[in-house]
Every structure is written in C-alpha cells, then in structure tokens.
Amino acid sequence: MCGIVGYIGHEPAVSRLLGGLRELEYRGYDSAGIALLQADGLRCFKAVGKLSNLAAKLGDFESCGPVTAIGHTRWATHGKPTEANAHPHGLTHSQVVHNGIIENHVALRAALQTPFLSQTDSEVIVHLFERHLALRTGVEDPALAAFRATLDDLEGAYAILLISETEPGRIFFARKGSPLQLGFAEGGCHFASSDAPLVGLCTEALYLEDGQWGVANAEALILFDALGREVEPSSRLLPATSLAARKEGFRYFMEKEIYEQPRVLADILTGRLRNGAVVLDELGLQWLLPISSVTLCACGTSYHAALAGSYLLERLARVPARVEIASEFRYREPVLDPTGLFVVISQSGETADTLEAIKLAKTQGLATLALCNVDNSSIVREAARTLLLRAGIEKGVASTKAFSAQVLTLWLLALYWGQARGLLAGERHAIELAALNAVRDVMRVQRGTHERIQRLSKRYLHGHGFFFIGRDLFYPLALEGALKLKEISYLHAEGYPAGEMKHGPIALADAELFTIALMARSSLYEKVKSNVEELSAREATIIAISTEQFDLADDLIQIRPYAHPMLEFFEMLVVVQLLAMEIAVRLGNDVDMPRNLAKSVTVE
Ligand code: M6R
Question: What's the pLDDT at 1?
Fold first, then answer.
C-alpha cells in the first residue's frame, strides 16, 4: 500500500527520496511523487505507474544546498491512479503526503467550499492547514498551531508529512493508525513509513506512537502526544539489512502477513461503519437493490473466501448465492440469472480463469463486482464495480491476509445488502456490528498460541494425510487450512465437510490420519463433536481447535470464547495459518516461495 519518505538536510534529496521509495516498492503502488523546498521555492513532480516514470520526469534534476523534501508512492483507494490524485497534494505554499484514510473528508470538503484538484481524501489536509495558518497571526509558531488545528479536524487513520514555503527546513509530521518513523544521521533527518528506507542512512529510528505529532528540522524535533503534551522522543536500533527491514523482524513474509491481519482488517473497516450501519460507498443502494441473486467465482484461496461469502450472503441478506470455481465455470456453458450479480474475487486481479469468467458473465448481461487487492488490474478494469481489499501487497505465495480481507469484505457486503433489504435491525444488527468491531483484536496473534503451535508442529511431520474438517462457515475454513498446509509443507491435506466423512473418507481413518477438527462452539458444536467422535473411534489422531476441552482430542489448540461464529472463524484462521507455516518451517521448506507455485496465475 502507500509509502512515505521525507528528508531535511544538505545532501542531494532527489536520489535519497527515490532510493527510499524504491525500498517501499514491494508494498505495491500505482503512482508516485515528490515535493522539494529549496532556496528557489517549492517544486512538485508526479507520475502515474512505476517509479521509473517519476525518475524519467525528474531527468537529471537534483537538489542543491539546504532542502526540505517529501515523497510518496500511492496505492489508490479514493479516486483512480492519475497524476492529479498522486501525492504530494499542494495548494499555494504547502505540500502534503498522507497514508491512511480521512473518514470525514466529504464533510470537510463541503465545509471548505473551495475547488479541489484531486478526488482524494488526502487533499483536504493541505487546504485545512493553509486555512488555519491564515487565521493564526500573532501566536507563537503559527505553523505548528495550524498543523495541530488541522489534525484536530481529521477523523480516520493517517501518517502525514507536510512542508510549507513559509517554513523552510521543517517537516510537520503526525501518526494515527498508519506507521511513521524518523531517524537522524549526519546528513540530516529522514522520515519513512517503514524501516527499509531508513536502513543504511540511520542506525536508530524513532517509531511514532498513535496520536503523536510534531515538527522536525535537520537536527532535532519537537514531539507531542494526542493531548498536545510535549513528550520525550526515544529511539530504537534499526535492522541491519533492508531485506530484514522489509520483513519487519519476522522470519518470513508469510509470518509478517499473518501478524499484519489486525491492521488490514482495521483498514477495511475504516470509513465503512457510519451512524450505526455498514456503508459501502463504492456500491450504492440503487445499484444493489434490484439485484435478485449472486454468483461468486474465483480460484484457490479466493474460491474458499467465495464459499464463506455465500453462507454469509444467504444468511444475512437472504440473497440466493452460488459459488463457482472459475476454471470449471468457463467451459460448462453456465446458465446465469440475467438480473443477478456476478462477483469475482481475486488477490492479484490477474488470474486468467477468473478474468475469463467475468468476461463471460458480462456477455450474458450480468452486473459485475470485483473484490480485488490490486487496483487497475485486469479484473478491476473488467468489473462494473470494485471493492478493493485494502490488504497491501502480499509477498508470500501462500495467501493469508488477502483471504481474511476477502472474507471480511464479503461479510460487509452481506451486511450492507441485508440492511438495504430491511432484514437487519435491532439486536441482530447490533450483534453483527459489535462483532465487526471486535474482529481486529480477534486476529491479533496470541504469543502463547503461536508458541504452542510451534511446539506441536514437530508431531505432525509425517503420517499419510491430514483432514481438516468443519461445518457451515467452518467448512470453507477447513478447505483453506488444508490448502495452506499442502502448498507449503507438501504434505497431503484435504478439507472436508465434517458430516461427509462417514460417506467415504472415514475408510482412511487410522492413527496416521491426522484430523484437524474445527470445533466452533458458536456453530453446530454438538454435530461436529459427533463427527469427530466417529473418527476417534476408528483410531484417527485428532487435533481439535476449539474453545472447549475435548477428551478425545490427542492435541487441543484452545482459542478464546466468542458468541459470534465469525469471531471464532477469524481466530481459527490464524491457528490454521500458523500451523501450516510451522510444519513447513520444520520440514525446511521455502515458506514464502513454495515449489511449483506462482503468486499470480496468468495462464489457464
Ligand atoms: O490472485 P488470485 O486470488 O486470483 O489467485 C487465486 C489463486 O491462485 C490463489 O488463491 C492461490 O490458491 C494461492 N496460492 C493460495 O494460497
């Protein structure tokens, strides 16, 4: 997702900023820009697409002498990836870069009553700053006061750097919900939204806490907390290499992405829970309400999300939902409901089978919607509407955070639709919203759970196969758990509906058949328990994931109790992801780049 860099000093700034932005490229972006303030004034350069386009635009331009500079890579959320929407955003004498989402930007734009150059939520920041600065005459440090007043106006999540011609040699900064750090070196002061751009330039970094803000020059900073009290900055050592920095202390990208899930889920919810309801501005009720049914279509992990989505859409919105594997769908001459909605789900937006499926649905006249992690991808360009997944770039070939983002987005879709159809009101609605608000904490990895899974994993490196079993929503989760395991451990694993085991697969049961039982307390617990008892009676080795003690389990991975099945779903998801990873680690496999697999499957 978006990246930020900043620099105050005497060294050439253009090469520093471009170098820093290159370190953030791996997070994904679709436009980039920098703004520099020197003795001869403030200049801004922006380009759509890769950093090479920005570099080409800059040509051999380089700063000379004292410079204050900010840079950004943008991953579009509000408005298309155009030059106008790229950061920095400027007005008469200031420029700003911003990561995150300003939730109240519509109200702020209306109140400002001034023309805007971009469609972004971020542009309001620079307007507010200049407006506040114009009003603050006769106060000590008017720019700092104006910056504080600007922050007071903002709702949502942000990491912000702001520079102004009135304030050479100073960068105003703030963090709330989006990471931002800074470090001092001999050459000056450096800012970045993650460690990688700082590695090699600084040895230590100050990691801003949520709510902290302030102003820096080339040698020092003043730092405040959310209440405006000055606080003492304290720095920590930076990682030694930029690859290590990109993994942010984790052993693998997959591990980092599992741990990142709470932040991803928070980003997805940002701006979408308003006045006690789910709001999906991208869709609109007029578009959604006439639709009579939904077909969800995808491949691999995204197919598992589609399956979970079908349970949610039928249950919460009472819309008939069917699910299709894209590679099958293409050739089986499907008969589709012309008044239906065709939803494709894809992390990459480039999966060939899914892309062809949406084209086919369009030829039959269906409304189309893409749930996708990559804006401007082929699938997004085909779809009439898009819900971006906001998961940030996923490096691990085995999908983790994209899956949780897909499921949460489908849950939001089901709730939005259910609300629109008047099906969710009163206590039921309140329960759903409370669960949505809890989901971020549920996905936070519990240190004890991870350690237990690490220890347990050594017992499950052999055997003749794994069955992941569950019912209802926990069946798609079982499929996903099995896929994760087989992708990176190369052990045979299957996901199965728990109630189906007795119709065949139970023939395989013996001590070397490892059954991962997803025993959700909130959903058909007694039924799953009987299914597991049948397997245990035939000597299968049972690994139960549950809130409950279960006497027949050979091993139990205990999760926290929740009344809402989606909360059990998300906590169990973390468990199956970690279990797959720890088994693969013990087997010595390349967790991030498993054999034979590609991150984006652009062939049939
Ligand atoms: O980019 P997509 O979501 O369209 O990709 C679909 C599958 O190729 C993908 O989910 C694959 O199954 C992953 N390796 C799962 O971890």
Answer: 60
Q: In this structure, are 494 and 542 located in the same domain?
A: yes
With a 6 Å cutoff on the Cβ, whether 302 touches ligand 1 is yes
Pocket test for ligand 1, best of 358, 377, 399 (most atoms within 8 A of CB): 399
Give residues with Cβ within 8 angstroms of 570, minimum separation 6. 265, 404, 407, 439, 442, 443
Alpha carbon separation from 524 to 157, 565, 566 (Å, rounded)? 38, 10, 13
CA atoms of 49 and 313, how far apart (whole Å): 36
From 258, 345, 348, mutation site for ligand 1 pocket: most ligand atoms within 8 A of C-beta: 348
**3-class SS at 387?**
strand
Model pTM score? 0.78
* Domain carrying residue 410: 248-443
**Ligand 1 centre distance from Cα of residue 168 (Å):** 48
Q: Find the catalytic residue in 2, 189, 202, 297.
A: 2
Given a cut of 70, is residue 414 above it in pLDDT?
yes
User: pLDDT, tens digit, for every residue of 547-576?
Assistant: 999 999 999 999 999 999 999 999 999 999
Same domain, 338 and 382: yes
Task: Please give the pLDDT value at position 375.
Answer: 72
Task: Quote the tokens at residue 576.
Answer: 């199956």
* CA atoms of 604 and 598, how far apart (whole Å): 13
Beta pairing class for 555-558 and 541-546 = parallel
399 lines ligand 1 (CB under 6 A): yes
Please state, in angstroms and as integers, the Cα–Cα distance from residue 246 to each residue in 205, 208, 276, 470, following that order. 15, 18, 37, 36
Q: Render pLDDT for 336-362 as a digit per residue (tens, 0 to 9).
A: 999 999 999 999 998 989 999 999 999
- In single-letter form, the type of residue at position 553 comes to A
Instruction: Decide which of 237, 263, 290 is a domain's last residue.
Output: 237
Confidence bin at 2 (pLDDT 50/70/90):
confident
- pLDDT computed for residue 425 by the predictor: 87
Q: Based on the fold, state whether residues 80 and 201 are members of the same structural domain.
A: yes
From the alpha carbon of 400, which atom of ligand 1 is closest? 16
The answer to the question of residue 243 being in a domain is no
- pLDDT tens per residue across span 356-404: 999 999 999 999 999 999 877 889 989 999 999 999 888 899 999 999 9
pLDDT band of residue 308 (cuts 50, 70, 90) is very high
CB distance 291 to ligand 1 below 6 Å: no
253 and 336 belong to one structural domain: yes
Q: Which protein residue has the closest C-alpha to ligand 1 atom 12?
A: 300
Please say if 484 is a catalytic residue.
no
How many CA atoms does the CB half-sphere of 230 hold within 13 Å? 4
Q: Is 2 among the residues known to form the active site?
A: yes
Ligand 1, atom 9, lies closest to the CA of 300
Ligand 1: residue of 253, 254, 302, 480 to mutate (most ligand atoms within 8 A of CB) is 302
Distance from residue 300's CA to the centre of ligand 1 (Å): 5
pLDDT per residue over 252-298, tens digit each?
A: 999 999 999 999 999 899 889 988 999 999 998 999 999 999 999 99
- For residue 299, the ligand 1 atom closest to its alpha carbon is 6
Distance 157 CA to ligand 1 centre (A): 29
Domain C-terminal end among 212, 237, 262: 237
CATH number, domain at 387?
Answer: 3.40.50.10490
pLDDT of residue 491: 95
